[in-house]
From TrEMBL:
Protein family membership: Belongs to the bacterial/plant glucose-1-phosphate adenylyltransferase family.
Record-annotated Glucose-1-phosphate adenylyltransferase/Bifunctional protein GlmU-like C-terminal hexapeptide domain positions: 290-358
Catalysis: reaction(s): alpha-D-glucose 1-phosphate + ATP + H(+) = ADP-alpha-D-glucose + diphosphate
Subunit structure, as described in the record: Homotetramer.
Site (Could play a key role in the communication between the regulatory and the substrate sites): Q60
Gene3D superfamilies: Hexapeptide repeat proteins (2.160.10.10), Spore Coat Polysaccharide Biosynthesis Protein SpsA, Chain A (3.90.550.10)
Pathway: Glycan biosynthesis; glycogen biosynthesis
Organism lineage: Bacteria, Bacillati, Bacillota, Bacilli, Lactobacillales
Family annotation (InterPro entries): ADP-Glc_PPase, ADP_Glu_pyroP_CS, GlgC_bac, GlmU/GlgC-like_hexapep, NTP_transferase_dom, Nucleotide-diphossugar_trans, Trimer_LpxA-like_sf
Protein name: Glucose-1-phosphate adenylyltransferase
Gene of this entry: glgC
Claim: ATP-binding is one of the keywords in the record: yes
Top-level taxon of the source organism: Bacteria
Domain Nucleotidyl transferase, first and last residues per copy: 8-260
UniProt-listed Enzyme Commission number(s): 2.7.7.27
């Protein structure tokens, strides 16, 4: 098969336990976001917009919805000849289906898939971040520096740096040291979990790592430190756009609220860099004569007959007469009954809140409702 310059692999197999009830039956990358999207739409759309033709999506936990969703390559324009989105579960073992042992092992188990497409470079992505990025610029950095690996980094407040993998670099952004969640960070360049590797070199390291019983088979813990120990050239690529790891209930709420409070940072109406998603064919939103809407993000199919303020209202949501929804995120198909009151709440998909119920969280502790609530 003809060589592809750049092939993408999206790691979408994490459990997402910190999203609590939202990931009981749905893989974290398939969790709804921003009215009509799912989290996985962002890396897939970035790939499509960057001209990457071959994308592997590595799934594992609760994969049914995610597998069927990403298999629809036409959503991202990746259904033409020579392109495609490929669902890649863990390899079958003699005793049954296994699991990916770590992020590096997930790639190792798919070496044959990558070799089939014969890329010069491999782009490794996470399936659970909200951002827009042109991966061509990342590749340019990699090629121009003749790097063995290039890692996207973002500046974070130094007081928060201990929550991230931190890259310590020289003045030319050559990585000299990698520290995983350091107690006393030396810099504020946080790894975004977005890597470009020269494939021939990475393949060798993966095969060696696979033989080590002492390895956790992880990029951050094993592969990148081994590259550094061997004197390989690792370059940091600074990213200065919007990026959020939506790994917790609070961070998912915050990122949704950013669509209202910081709309310019994550502009989902930008026609020059579209985020593609499923079109459910829902009708236009309906704002009733008795409704009041203030500073809200409302998607198609929503019916609003109550009071909505500073909230994200997803596809096919209903807010009934005299219901009050403030500072909240209602995921697709949620229903808020007549006279109910919500403040600092996330309501999961298709969950119904009975009439007259009051549910209240705080900005620091968002309340997640993942089951129907009756009086």
């Amino acid at each position: 098969m003809a060589q592809n310059k750049l092939l993408a692999m999206i790691l979408a197999g994490g459990r997402g336990t910190r999203l609590e009830g939202l990931t009981k039956k749905v893989a974290k990358p398939a969790v709804a976001f921003g009215g009509k999207y799912r989290i996985i739409d962002f890396p897939l759309s970035n790939c499509a917009n960057s001209g990457i033709d071959i994308v592997g999506v590595l799934t594992q936990y609760e994969p049914v919805l995610l597998n069927s969703y990403v298999a629809q390559s036409q959503r991202w324009g990746l259904d033409v000849q020579g392109s495609g989105v490929f669902v890649l579960p863990p390899s079958e073992k003699i005793e049954g289906f296994g699991l990916y042992k770590g992020t590096a092992d997930a790639i190792t188990q798919n070496i044959d898939f990558i070799d089939l497409h014969d890329p010069e470079y491999v782009l490794i992505l996470s399936g659970d971040h909200i951002y827009k990025m042109n991966y061509d610029k990342l590749l340019d950095t990699h090629v121009q520096n003749k790097a063995d690996a290039t890692i996207a980094v973002i500046e974070v407040p130094i007081k928060e740096a201990s929550r991230f993998g931190i890259m310590n670099t020289d003045e030319n952004y050559r990585i000299e040291e990698f520290e995983e969640k350091p107690e006393n960070p030396k810099s504020n360049l946080a790894s975004m979990g977005i890597y470009i590797f020269t494939w021939k070199t990475l393949k060798k390291y993966l095969q060696e790592d696979d033989k080590l019983d002492t390895s956790s088979h992880d990029f951050g813990h094993d592969i990148i430190p081994k590259y550094l120990a061997d004197g390989r050239k690792l370059i940091a690529h600074p990213f200065r756009g919007y990026w959020k790891d939506v790994g917790t209930v609070n961070s998912l709420w915050e990122s949704n609220m950013d669509l209202i409070d910081h709309a310019g940072d994550l502009d989902l109406s930008d026609r020059t860099w579209r985020i593609y998603s499923e079109d459910k064919g829902s009708p236009a939103q309906v704002i009733g004569s008795s409704a009041t809407v203030k500073s809200a993000y409302i998607d198609k199919g929503a019916i609003i007959d109550g009071y909505v303020e500073h909230s994200v209202i997803s596809t096919d949501v209903e807010v009934e007469h005299e219901a009050v929804v403030k500072n909240s995120v209602l995921l697709p198909g949620a229903v808020v009954g007549e006279g109910a009151s919500l403040d600092y709440v996330i309501v999961a998909e298709n969950v119904k809140i009975a009439a007259g119920v009051t549910l209240t969280g705080t900005e620091d502790q968002i309340l997640l409702i993942d089951k129907n609530v009756t009086k």
